[in-house]
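Dear H.,

Thanks for agreeing to be a second pair of eyes. The structure we're designing against is below in token form, covering all 335 positions.
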């Protein structure tokens, strides 16, 4: 769920996007008109289409729009003199153009922009021979103005949202691991174990959301000329996010293995106490701090020297056995 601050930040971003879109539309119209266009409205159309959530997305969309526009103008100008204006000839031009784009292995956006260009140029060229030139020039003007305004006038920056997301996930994961440690220490009650397993699985959605927000933040800084310091800060948090991802995988595996161990009936109170202590010793890994420091000895659990050479073999055996058990349960549930 989004909190009030996140909602307010999204509304603020949309407000700035609206102001920038209006400014860039006005500028592009006047520039196109100044350069002799008799269809200056084409430039603001490009602005409206090209101004995306981030500067990087705007640049990518502008590039795809220009590629589609150039190919569409070229095909239509070459073939339209020999074709009548009707739906069948329009469909033929779009078909030819789109297969050329497909052959070039271009983005799907290029296909849509090409089809739109073919439609407008094919129809308008018969009424105004200046339209193809205006279409190319004004599209380019609109794309450039959209990107420059987006880049220079309060460029989008989602770093704060990303950092907050990482801290929230870190806190939730840390609290879950505290509960897992208490659950182990207090007797590994099966019902509570399954509840914990479900809660940790639900954290997976939050983990994916956090990664998406971090990706948006990274993308928003890609062409931001004022964000060198923020880029370094975000890079540090990306490394912490990687650590949290490993932590999530570990916590999920730990609960499953302790449930299996408890069901096998071979775990002892001594094992429970030492493993509860072990999980608490790992708490700094699950909590995002400015600097990661593990207090004391990080590994509390010891195995006999005789077993040390076989620990990988045992781990692989355990994981394989667990996979086969889960597969068997799934197959039995279908029968």
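And this is the sequence the design step returned. I haven't edited it by hand at all.
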């Amino acid at each position: 769920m989004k909190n009030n601050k996140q909602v307010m930040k999204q509304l603020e971003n949309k407000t700035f996007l609206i102001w920038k879109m209006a400014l860039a539309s006005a500028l592009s119209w006047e520039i196109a008109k100044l350069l002799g266009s008799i269809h200056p409205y084409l430039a603001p159309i490009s602005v409206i289409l090209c101004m995306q959530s981030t500067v990087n997305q705007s640049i990518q969309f502008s590039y795809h729009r220009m590629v589609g526009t150039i190919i569409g103008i070229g095909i239509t100008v070459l073939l339209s003199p020999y074709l009548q204006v009707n739906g069948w000839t329009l469909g033929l031009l779009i078909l030819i153009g789109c297969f050329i784009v497909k052959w070039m292995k271009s983005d799907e956006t290029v296909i849509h922009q090409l089809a739109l260009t073919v439609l407008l140029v094919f129809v308008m060229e018969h009424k105004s021979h200046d339209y193809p030139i205006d279409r190319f020039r004004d599209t380019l003007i609109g794309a450039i103005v959209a990107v420059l305004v987006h880049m220079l006038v309060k460029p989008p920056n989602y770093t704060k949202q990303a950092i907050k997301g990482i801290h929230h996930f870190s806190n939730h994961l840390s609290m879950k691991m505290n509960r897992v440690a208490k659950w182990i220490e207090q007797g590994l009650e099966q019902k509570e174990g399954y509840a914990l397993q479900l809660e940790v699985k639900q954290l997976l959605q939050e983990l994916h959301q956090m990664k998406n927000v971090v990706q948006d933040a990274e993308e928003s800084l890609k062409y931001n000329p004022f964000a060198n310091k923020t880029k370094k800060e975000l890079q540090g948090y990306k490394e912490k996010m990687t650590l949290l991802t490993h932590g999530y995988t570990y916590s999920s595996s730990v609960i499953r293995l302790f449930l299996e161990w408890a069901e096998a009936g071979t775990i002892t109170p001594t094992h429970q106490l030492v493993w509860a202590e072990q999980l608490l010793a790992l708490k700094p890994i699950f909590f995002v701090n400015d600097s990661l420091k593990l207090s004391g000895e990080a590994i509390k659990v010891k195995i006999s020297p005789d077993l040390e050479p076989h620990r990988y073999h045992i781990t692989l055996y355990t994981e394989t056995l667990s996979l086969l058990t889960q597969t068997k349960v799934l197959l039995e549930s279908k029968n």
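Two observations from my side: The chain has twelve helices and no strands. The longest helix spans residues 228-264.

Warmly,
E.
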